[in-house]
Amino acid sequence: MMGNNLPPANEVVDLYRSNNIRRMRLYDPNQDALQALRDSGIELILVGNEVSPVGGTSWYAQYVLHAIQNIYQAIRAQGLHDQIKVSTSIDMTLLESSYPPSQGSFRGDVRSYLDPIIGYLVYASAPLLVNVYPYFSYANNPRDISLSYALFTSPNVMVWDGQYGYQNLFDAMLDAVHAAIDNTRIGYVPVVVSESGWPSDGGFAASYDNARIYIDNLIRHVGRGTPRRPWETETYLFAMFDENMKNPETEKHFGLFYPNKQRKYPFGFGGESDEFNTTVSLNSDM
Question: What are phi and psi of 222, to 5 degrees?
Fold first, then answer.
């Protein structure tokens, strides 16, 4: 993580276990983290983040499909391909259209990158990972998007799209991705939400109350799925801790826990029937 006041990997794993958080996402193969996770019972998702063929990460795009193919074939050779899935993570900027959700489509300048990946995910029966942040959509367009729609607190359907009614922005964004995949006509690929969260400070609409309401409602909601995919959506909360070395300021305040390992929010992870996933990035210097 990008913080200079965070606990060591073994204490992070202990915190996961004590709070009944059973899955973790890492952004790099940090050896301290992997050792701490050994025999912990915590499932691990280890995946790169938001590579795009345009913009600052474009140099990496040429390697993503080959990496997926090589890792998958190595796993398949060991007979583990039904247990371990290989994929990559994208963000919403790769969509050309997301409104209404049924018209979701990928940008023309990323199709040559994404289409072969989607095709391989169909072959490998693996999901596409997507980072979904209603916070940023709302913060960038508060004139047209209501806060209640972004926070899951709207009492009524806000958007009708044919037979589908949308009462919250998260579902609309996620179904736009589902539609974009369907509209490629390559094949069916499930979607995992690899990041979602709301900052508690540092910018427009970034407050403790908004973050608490969003995360609490997200946890309660994802088990029901979306109008287009009405079954449970595997979802990872971002992030485990506040990170004081990130910029801009809002990026410092996405944590579910403070660096001293105290919970930021009153709702818990400790109920016997509760199971939560969070994301954490552990740098190689931990």
Answer: -65, -20
Predicted local confidence at residue 285, as pLDDT = 32
pLDDT tens per residue across span 110-129: 999 999 999 999 999 999 99
Express as a percent the part of the chain with pLDDT over 90.
81
- Annotated catalytic residues are 50, 195
Q: What mean pLDDT is predicted for residues 250-257? A: 96
- The Cα 156–Cα 153 span in angstroms is 9
Q: Is 194 helix (H, G, I), strand (E, B) or coil?
A: strand
Distance of alpha carbon 53 from alpha carbon 61, whole angstroms: 5
What is the C-alpha separation between 251 and 267, in angstroms, rounded? 22
Of the pLDDT bands very low, low, confident and very high (cuts 50, 70, 90), residue 132 is: very high
Residue 276 DSSP SS3: strand
Taking each helix axis as running N to C, give the angle between helix 169-184 and helix 111-124, from 0 to 180 degrees, rounded to the nearest 10: 90
Residues 6+ apart with CB under 8 A from 70: none
Average pLDDT over residues 58-87: 94
Residue whose token pair is 């736009």: 176
Give the Cα separation of 120 and 126 in Å (integer): 8
**171 in Cβ contact with 164 (< 8 Å):** no
In the DSSP assignment, the letter for residue 192 is E
pLDDT at residue 277, as a whole number: 66
- Per-residue pLDDT tens over the stretch 191-210: 999 999 999 999 999 999 99
Task: Give the DSSP letter string of 94-163.
Answer: GEEE-SSGGG-EE-GGGHHHHHHHHHHHHHHT-PEEEE--HHHHHHH-TTTS-HHHHTT--SS--EEETT
Question: H/E element holding 78?
Answer: none
Q: Specify burial of residue 59 (Cβ count, 10 A radius: 0-12, 13-18, 19+).
A: exposed
